[in-house]
């Protein structure tokens, strides 16, 4: 029998130097029925030539993707990938054990090694190998059945990692400057980064700029009292987008053996989906059901924001209007008739106004429209266009035609004017329009 040469681990940055035709010819050693039978065997089965995973792979079950987290075709094209995924110490020991078994004429052996997978918890593999020999004792093929080691044999830290990966949380050890000292959990799915890429990086560098100052201020306030802090923070994903996290910071005087300085243990939970659902619900509850206008609270918030953060020289104008005699419509046609008129109000505003505007419902029959870039006179012309459209509209209700009109007041923002003062002046224009006969536009003083 030809002596078997000592095998060294495959180079980390290249494929094993084996002719590509070897694997292809090996595939032809097993006919289709044999391959189908091997595919049906429980576990993950592979068949190689004497060189094991160094290049002559004859058959491989598709289920290897569950162990190596790579498709079977990757291993068929580059069999040495499996060896390169083994922990370095286990790889050399496995090769030595296999060489000794082949040399000493053994027909069966069991290998146990750790498989390292990108962005995932390392997996402890049990590899049951059967060696087929020729009449002279030379090795023809190796048939292996791969499986995960029973849970009780897994290391405690592997079990902890698996639990963290399942729940999706991250546990991060931080020094007092919020530099990451250690990371547990599925950082790849959470932030698109390997744990090693997070270590020695500041958590502040991942935060949205406006969140970083708030977090720093809060932690400084709480550090002296050694109290935990719960904050909602945006962290940057590797793809450049921000994800929302609920982070529980717990002070710890000695986080790890790496740091004797005060610091924090942070438990970060991805709440992006929950946050989006909350924002959608806020938008829904801020909108009036009949007219699709912002409710009073939401409109006033928008108005205050526009006055506080807009340029002082930018023009803002407002139209406030009441539906004339809505109570009479409700008495004559019932609340359904009045609601139908209110529904038409929202539709007509959107159909008539060509300008960009914000639309709010302040009271049962009172509405406001906020415009930007318009003078008082231009706003008055927009209001007149609305008035004419409302007055010309007839609403069909159970075979009857309902008509209605509106009284409108217009105002342009004054320097240093509050949101309440601005709105009150436009409202005074409505009252003047009503005093002068309704169904008209009046400019505020």
Describe this structure in words.
The chain is α+β, with helices and mostly antiparallel strands and 445 residues long. The protein folds into 3 domains: 20-153, Beta-Lactamase, CATH 3.30.450; 156-276, Beta-Lactamase (2-Layer Sandwich); 287-443, Alpha-Beta Plaits (2-Layer Sandwich), CATH 3.30.70. The protein has 15 helices and 17 strands. A hairpin with an 8-residue loop joins β1 (44-48) and β2 (57-60). α13 (326-352) packs across α14. It is elongated and about 115 Å long. The model is unreliable at 1-6, 13-28 and 254-261 (pLDDT under 50). Residues 314-445 form the GGDEF domain. It catalyses: 2 GTP = 3',3'-c-di-GMP + 2 diphosphate. This is diguanylate cyclase.
The coarse silhouette is elongated
Tally of distinct domains: 3
- Lateral strand order in the biggest sheet: 2-1-5-4-3
> Radius of gyration, rounded?
37 Å
Count of alpha and pi helical runs:
15
CATH H-level superfamily of the largest domain: Reverse transcriptase/Diguanylate cyclase domain
Termini distance? 110 Å
Average residue pLDDT: 80
Report the top-level CATH class of the largest domain. Answer: Alpha Beta
Helix content: 25-40%
Structural class, judged by helices and strands?
alpha+beta
């Amino acid at each position: 029998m030809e002596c078997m040469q000592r095998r060294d681990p495959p180079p980390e940055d290249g494929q094993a130097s084996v002719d590509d035709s070897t694997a292809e010819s090996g595939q032809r050693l097993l006919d289709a029925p044999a391959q189908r039978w091997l595919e049906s065997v429980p576990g993950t089965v592979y068949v190689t030539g004497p060189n094991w995973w160094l290049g002559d792979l004859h058959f491989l079950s598709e289920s290897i993707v569950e162990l190596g987290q790579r498709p079977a075709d990757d291993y068929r094209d580059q069999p040495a990938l499996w060896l390169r995924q083994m922990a370095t110490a286990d790889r050399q020991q496995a090769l030595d054990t296999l060489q000794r078994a082949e040399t000493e004429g053994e027909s069966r052996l069991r290998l146990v090694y750790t498989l390292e997978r990108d962005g995932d918890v390392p997996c402890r593999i049990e590899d049951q190998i059967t060696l087929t020999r020729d009449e002279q004792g030379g090795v023809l093929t190796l048939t292996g059945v791969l499986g995960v080691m029973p849970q009780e044999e897994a290391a405690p830290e592997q079990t902890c990692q698996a639990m963290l990966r399942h729940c999706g949380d991250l546990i991060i050890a931080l020094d007092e400057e919020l530099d990451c000292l250690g990371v547990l959990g599925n950082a790849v799915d959470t932030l698109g980064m390997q744990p090693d890429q997070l270590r020695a990086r500041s958590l502040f560098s991942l935060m949205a700029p406006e969140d970083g100052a708030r977090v720093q201020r809060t932690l400084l306030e709480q550090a002296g009292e050694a109290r935990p802090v719960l904050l909602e923070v945006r962290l940057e994903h590797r793809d450049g987008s921000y994800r929302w996290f609920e982070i529980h910071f717990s002070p710890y005087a000695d986080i790890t053996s790496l740091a004797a300085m005060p610091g924090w243990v942070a438990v970060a939970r991805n709440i992006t989906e929950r946050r989006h659902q909350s924002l959608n619900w806020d938008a829904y509850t801020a909108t009036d059901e009949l007219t699709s206008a912002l409710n009073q609270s939401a409109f006033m918030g928008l108005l205050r924001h526009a006055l506080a953060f807009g340029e002082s020289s930018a023009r803002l104008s407002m139209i406030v209007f009441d539906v004339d005699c809505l109570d009479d419509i409700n008495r004559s046609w019932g609340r359904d008739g009045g609601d139908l008129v209110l529904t038409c109000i929202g539709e007509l505003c959107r159909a008539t106004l060509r300008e960009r505007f914000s639309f709010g419902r302040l009271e049962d029959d009172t509405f406001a429209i906020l415009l930007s870039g318009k003078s008082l006179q231009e706003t008055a012309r927009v209001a007149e266009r609305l008035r004419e459209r409302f007055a010309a509209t007839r609403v069909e209700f159970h075979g009857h035609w309902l008509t209605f009109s509106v009284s409108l007041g217009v105002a342009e923002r004054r320097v240093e004017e509050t949101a309440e003062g601005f709105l009150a002046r436009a409202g005074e224009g409505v009252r003047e329009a009503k005093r002068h006969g309704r169904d008209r536009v009046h400019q505020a003083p």
